[in-house]
Every structure is written in C-alpha cells, then in structure tokens.
Hints:
InterPro entries: PORR_domain, PORR_fam. This protein has 361 residues and is an alpha+beta fold. It folds into three domains: 13-90 and 321-340, Arc Repressor Mutant, subunit A (Orthogonal Bundle), CATH 1.10.10; 101-169, Orthogonal Bundle (Arc Repressor Mutant, subunit A); 172-304, no CATH class. Helix content is 43%, strand content 11%. It has 15 helices and eleven strands. A three-stranded antiparallel beta sheet has the order 1-3-2. It has a three-stranded antiparallel beta sheet with strand order 4-6-5. A hairpin with a 6-residue loop joins strand 8 and strand 9. It starts with 6 loop residues before the first helix and ends with a strand. The model has no long low-confidence stretch (mean pLDDT 91).
Amino acid sequence: MKWKKDPFYDSIEHIHKSIELKSIVSLKNIIAQNPHGCIPISDVSKKGLQFDVKIKVARFLRQYPSIFEEFTGPKYNLPWFRLTEEAALIDKEEKRVLEEYKEDLRERLKKFILMSKEKVLPFRIIQGMLWYLGLPEDFLLFPDKNLDGYFRIVELEDGLKGLGVIDGKRMISVLQRNAMRKGVYSGEQMEAIEFPLFPSKGLRLRRKIKDWLIEFQKLPYISPYEDYLHLDPNSDIADKRVLGFLHELLSLFVEHSAERKKLLCLKKYFGLPQKMHKAFEKHPHIFYLSFRNKTCTAILKEAYGDNGNGEMSIETHPMLVVRQKYIDLMKESQVILKRKKLKNQFVECKSDSDCVDGVLK
C-alpha cells in the first residue's frame, strides 16, 4: 500500500526526540548517581558507543547547557560536568514518578513478557525495551528491589539469564478493555473486535482494499496473551493476531511508538512472521511510519486520536510528562547556543574593520 506523509505524526515532538533524549538521560544518570553530583569528562569520554553518542561526548554535553553545566575541575584543568538546577529538579521528579507508579510500570513489563511464546524473555531483550517501557536502564541490576513475587529469574541456554512471569490472572488487551467499555465485546474467545481506524488526511484506499478491510475486521480477535499455536500461520486470523500484538505492544510504550528495526528483533520470541514489518505498511489507518531522523519509526495512531467522546482510548504513560520536561530543556539549550553564537558574531564584528553598522559584510 502506498505510503503517504502525514505532518501531524511527523511533528510529535516527544516521539522524534526520543532517541536523542535517551542518550541525554543515560549521561544524566551517570552524573546524578555520582556521590559528588559531578564527573570529570574522562569518566565518559571513551564511552560514546555505550551512550549511543556518535560525536565526542564532551561536544554532545555542551550541546545542552540547560541540562549539563560545565566547569573546570580541581585537577589538571579538565572539564567537569554537573546537572543544572532545572535538570536536577526534573531528575528528582523522575525518581518520584518511578516510585509512585512502580506497580503500573511492573504491570507493563509483565504484559510484555506474557505476550512472549514461553512467558520468559532473555535479559538482553528486556534491556533493549526498558526505555520504551519507561523503566530505568539499571532496572535489571536490582531484581530484589524492582521485581515482585510474580517474576522469576531463570537460567537459559548458553549461560544466559532470563526473566519470566508466573502466569496468574488473565490479562486483557487495551483493545479488549475498550471494546468491553463500549459494550461490543463480552470476553468470549474467538470473538470479533474491530481495530479503531484513524485515516490520515488525503489517504484513500482502493475499493478492493476497503472491501477486504471490512471482512478482516469481522474476523475473530486473538489476544496477544492467548495461545496462538493452533492458528494457520498463512491465514488472515493469524495476520490479525500479529496486528493485535503490535497494537498492544505500542500501547504499553511511553511514546506509543518505536523504531521499527528494534521491533523486528522480537520476532523469534513472540512467534511473529518473517515479514511482520508488512503489517505496518498494510494497515496505514492503524499505524503511521515516520522517516524522520534517518530512521523508520512505527507510531500507533489510536494513541494520538480520541474515541469520539473527546477522551483518549489509550492512557498516557506516567513517564511521558517527565520526558517532555527534559525536551523543553533541550529546546531551551538551542536558544542559549543561538544567543551565544550571535553574541560572539557581534563581538567579532565590533573588532573587525569589515563591519558596516555593526553587521559583518
């Protein structure tokens, strides 16, 4: 199906600054966790790969003067960095939100694991999804503090560790919950649920595709928490199950979006077909693919629409407000750097004979 650009989804700030923000938060955590609240640049200068920083770390930190404050350290005149007062306040708020909503965040992790084939996932897979789920990057390092009795650590092949969930109460997906609220779903297995559709302006489906979509919506809905091994992998019902999985997965995430390449890594553990990426292209009324920042980001449209009553059908993630505050500081940093650049140009201009009325020729 032909892709069509949608400026609305391409302009959602917290989605398209998420990759950049992840590196900032990782470096912020290193500084905040230091007993002195500051670090010399030598502590992080050779760890750019770890923080997914593609330029020199010092240069990266200097791009955000509203978050990182630079000063000369006590030894060897090395640059040191600490958090600005504003960033330190947001860091405190972030810790408060993590504590206040720890049950909500654990529940999201449980759901993520319970959608997997074996109800167990390797630590490395979970580690790669912590940012999306809104959990701190050191979450798995402190299992006694962060995990409750529903989780179990298991030994996997090749000496790897995994995290499992004791399958207790029946989980229902956000689609099932919303359908129950509307009175169009009773909770029976193999019952149909229609996916909410959010057509982009100017995106029209051919008649043949419209007819197919109407019939597709009438197919039974297989919850991502239910057994699916009995399904014919080449059937439309199996396709609808994959669609339901992607919808539920993105509904758990902070920005209700993720880099498509990161999602492709989940195929083995969640019983997804080799060409699962086709689901995003095949259903442009449910997902939007953004190509900003030289990457492909899959966005769940329903999270940014309303249910017809002016209400959001997918709850806002508790960490989103905190991330938006960090993004506000990122934007403030751009203003500071721009002012500084203009000031430097003005100073150069005043001392340059090639200036006319205070402006460089």
